[in-house]
Write a structure and sequence with these properties.
Helices cover 37% and strands 28% of the residues. By secondary structure, the protein is of the alpha+beta class. The chain folds into three domains: 188 residues, no CATH class; 89 residues, no CATH class; 48 residues, no CATH class. Helix 3 packs across helix 5 and helix 6 packs antiparallel against helix 7. It is globular, with a radius of gyration of 25 Å. 24% of the residues are buried.
Length: 334
């Protein structure tokens, strides 16, 4: 992995009681030894694989101002991280779920792009077997389940300040306003809505197929073609490029897909991140509710699976063998 650590430091937030969140600050940066490099590489890998929201700093962001001073050389990275950890403690202490943790500030380069990653990592207990085959308790940073993480694309921020996507963060789990306090700490607002862009792409694809009057087989072929391209981009960690996608689709009539989407006002960006769950709808129909869970390939609609909109009835011809076996065994006992 082509990841080069520029500067990295850890601080700690310790919850003493319901009202007290203590700050423990390091006096020096971490040395970039093998253990630190492996930890940072793993954190980068885990974070990059997760679905993220995109944002930008508010004009009054104290963190952005402090980071700018650090980038200009008016403040050291260590001083910046120490002050930022104090601000993070103040925001986190407002919420009853505050648990503290290890606060990491990592300035690194990956594939010629500079990043600043800020994360609150939990310490977890685990077991290991010693050389004497005894069971020992140990502590480790729970990187795989880290959900309080934000990353600033410093290269994008400094070269394209009008961008709405140079800052990424993880949205909190249901019932926990993790993203709320972290966005307050960053003094940032949500920018590019990747899910909305992907939903807009799906709608544009369906409307384009209808506009050029494709039959069901042709429509399915187009949806499959779009999915294949987008999935490849997702696997490669690249964004969906609308001009490239348009070139790959066969032009029907006098308009290509990009021209059609622009004229119809879908407000699609020239490039945007792929959203796995949304793109899956190009090739799958899925839904659950009321004790029913249905999932099938889109190409089966109209062939083996039929939906009557007037009666809201789904008819399946040819049930899966394992389901048929269960139904037969159930009927034999009735």
């Amino acid at each position: 992995m082509s990841l080069d650590i520029e500067q990295i430091v850890l601080h700690q937030l310790i919850k003493r009681d319901e009202q007290t969140l203590e700050v423990v600050l390091r006096d020096s940066l971490l040395p970039t030894d093998t253990a630190v490099e492996e930890m940072m590489a793993e954190l980068h890998r885990v974070y990059s694989a997760k679905t993220k929201a995109y944002g930008l700093f508010n004009p009054e962001s104290e963190l952005a101002d402090a980071l700018q001073r650090c980038r200009n050389g008016d403040e050291t990275f260590l001083a910046f991280s120490r002050a930022a950890t104090g601000r993070l403690r103040d925001e986190l202490a407002k919420y009853p779920f505050a648990e503290g943790g290890v606060v990491l500030f990592g300035h690194y380069r990956y594939l010629a792009v500079e990043y600043l990653l800020i994360a609150v990592l939990s310490n977890r207990n685990s077991m290991h077997v010693s050389e004497q085959l005894d069971i020992r308790s140990t502590h480790h940073l729970d990187i795989n389940h880290a959900d309080i993480v934000a990353r600033i694309d410093l290269t994008e921020w400094e070269t394209n300040p009008a961008s709405k996507r140079y800052l990424t963060f993880l949205k909190g789990r249901v019932g926990r306003k993790v993203s709320d306090f972290f966005m307050d700490f960053l003094a940032a607002t949500e920018g590019l809505d990747a899910k909305a862009q992907n939903r807009g792409l799906l709608q544009a694809v369906d409307d384009y197929c209808a506009e050029v009057q494709l039959d069901n087989n042709e429509r399915h072929a187009v949806r499959q073609q779009v999915y294949s391209y987008c999935h490849e981009q997702l696997q490669a960690g690249e964004e969906i490029e609308l001009p490239v996608l348009s070139q790959q689709l066969t032009t029907v009539g006098d308009k290509d897909f990009q021209q059609f989407s622009s004229e119809q006002g879908y407000q699609l960006e020239q490039s945007f991140p792929a959203d796995r769950a949304t793109l899956r709808q190009l090739t799958k129909f899925a839904g659950s509710g009321g004790g029913v869970n249905v999932n099938f390939d889109a190409q089966l609609l109209g062939e083996r699976i039929f939906w009557d909109a007037s009666s809201d009835t789904l008819t399946i011809k040819g049930t899966p063998p394992n389901l048929r076996d269960q139904l037969q065994r159930y009927n034999s006992k009735s």
